[in-house]
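Subject: for your reference before the review

Hello V.,

The reviewers asked for a structural picture of the protein, and I figured it would be easier to keep everything in one thread rather than splitting it across files. Below is the amino acid sequence we used in the manuscript, unchanged from the supplementary table.
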Amino acid sequence: MIQFEANDIKKKRILKAFIQSVRTVINEEGIEKVTIRKIAKMAGYNSATIYNYFENLNQLKFFGAISFLDDYVNEIPFYLNKSDDTLEQFLLIWRCFVKHSFENPKIYYAIFTENIGDNSENLFKKYYQLFPDELENIPKKYIPMLLESKLSKRCSVHIKPCIEEGYFSTETAYKVDERIRLMYHGMLSLMVKNRFNYSHDKATEVFMNYITDLVESKILIPN
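And here is what came back from the structure prediction:
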């Protein structure tokens, strides 16, 4: 994605026009109907202009899809309020995430699984520089996790309190994270490709049963 300064009004205006156009197409037709030509025409530019701002179509979809995470983001505090225990909160945040992922798999696939190019670092930070109001109601302690573009880094932030409280060693936490991520990507991909016969509720329960068993087999102290 093109670099821009906070005061570069022209670049920010063009970027927002493209992203808003993607949002419109997703809302009206679905993310699979997003094309470079369609978005360029809707935003009032030619197709070549998009490539001056985004590396590829998948990256364009990524930015347009982020706003559809609002329901997930806004529900995080609700899920965490169900328990004060750090390990239980770890599982509750995963439940919140997969619930919304499996309800809208194509959106979450575009953001967390699809190949969006070599320069995928800090894309969430760039997005929220364009749309800072979307974080206004989010408690500050969740923001570091939400600003990470890669799911692996989000998971590292998410599991850190469990390491600090002695539930996992650093090495074990890495292995737990890796297995959960692989399971998530696999189930999400199957849902996107219609190779999974579970409803999104059933898929959520299956996923949570798997990771709960994994976590309980790896913790160092009793829960």
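For the response letter, the relevant points are probably these. The chain has two domains: 9-64, 69-218. The chain has a mean pLDDT of 90.

Happy to draft the paragraph if you're swamped.

O.
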